[in-house]
Amino acid sequence: MKKNRLFALLCAGALSASMLTACSGSQDSSANNASSDASTDSTETAEDTTSLKYIQDKGTLVLGLDDQLPPMGFLDESGTIVGFDIDVAEKVCEKLGVELVTQPINWDSKQMELDTKNIDCIWNGLSWSEERDEAMTLSIPYLENHMVLVVPTDSTYQTMDDLSGKNIALQSGSTAQEAFDAEPKLKDNTTMIGMDNNMSCLLDVESGASDAALMDETVANYLIETGGRNLRVMDDFLYAETYVIGFRKGETQLADAVNNALVELKADGTLAEISTKWFGSDITTVEAPAENADSAA
């Protein structure tokens, strides 16, 4: 009997020690997980204090663009990069105390160009999208745009349904491609033809190789009007979107500085002047400070 009681006591002691060890391990694991989570949260919410200084120390803001996107940013007849975005960027750089440098890039590689610091921002008719919002720090919207279809003037196409079985040209890597993939009437019933730029898309439609081109309304109207092209924009547009500026993810200090400059340019009338130069009226969407809006009223 004594042996049995002794054996029972020994087993109970071993079981208690095992439970204590397990509890201790669980507590250590929880503590480690909590520490890891806190570290992750701290990293994700760390305040950016260097991105503006980085730009100002080197004295330049390198703007990445597709130089075939009139009227936002493009090469004129003399080979100079001009456009609405370029004029606005120059004014913003004056406020930041840096020089604007324009850097043509392959639009398909824009994220890599930004992340590797070959450029400091993407500022060239960059449409807002959820994917871009996750990959970059984006500015406030400064212009509204529509995604539209361009067809020959004498064609009978009026709606997307009319384009069933046809070829649709668009710029690869652009939001036009995202719009195409998101619209079942196009994705399921037409053939996408990827091009390097929007001008190539219009030329493809003019030649008859493609039946329509999908692109930004601002670009389409400018290219048709200035080029005297026998093309028209269909009334049946896909959706409205906004233009933003893309910065490296987390570079909120630089983005805030640019946002503040845009607001100041709206308030003093500079944005309206530049917009009227390129579009005939002020179509910018940046809101002026309340005090300026009140005084203007």
Describe this entry's structure for a reader:
The chain is α/β, with parallel strands linked by helices. It has two domains: 139 residues, D-Maltodextrin-Binding Protein, domain 2; 96 residues, Periplasmic binding protein-like II (D-Maltodextrin-Binding Protein, domain 2, 3-Layer(aba) Sandwich). Helix content is 48%, strand content 23%. The strands form two sheets. Strands 1, 5, 6, 7, 8, 9, 10, 11, 12 and 13 form a ten-stranded mixed β-sheet that branches. The protein has a three-stranded antiparallel β-sheet with strand order 2-3-4. The longest helix has 43 residues. The N terminus and C terminus are likely disordered.
Give the end-to-end Cα distance, rounded to a whole number of Å: 101 Å
**CATH hierarchy: architecture of the largest domain:** 3-Layer(aba) Sandwich
The overall average pLDDT, rounded, is: 85
Outline type:
globular
Contiguous helical run count? 12
CATH superfamily of the largest domain: Periplasmic binding protein-like II
By helix and strand content, what is the structural category?
A: alpha/beta
Low-confidence spans:
1-45, 292-297
- Summarize the biggest pleated sheet: 10 strands, mixed
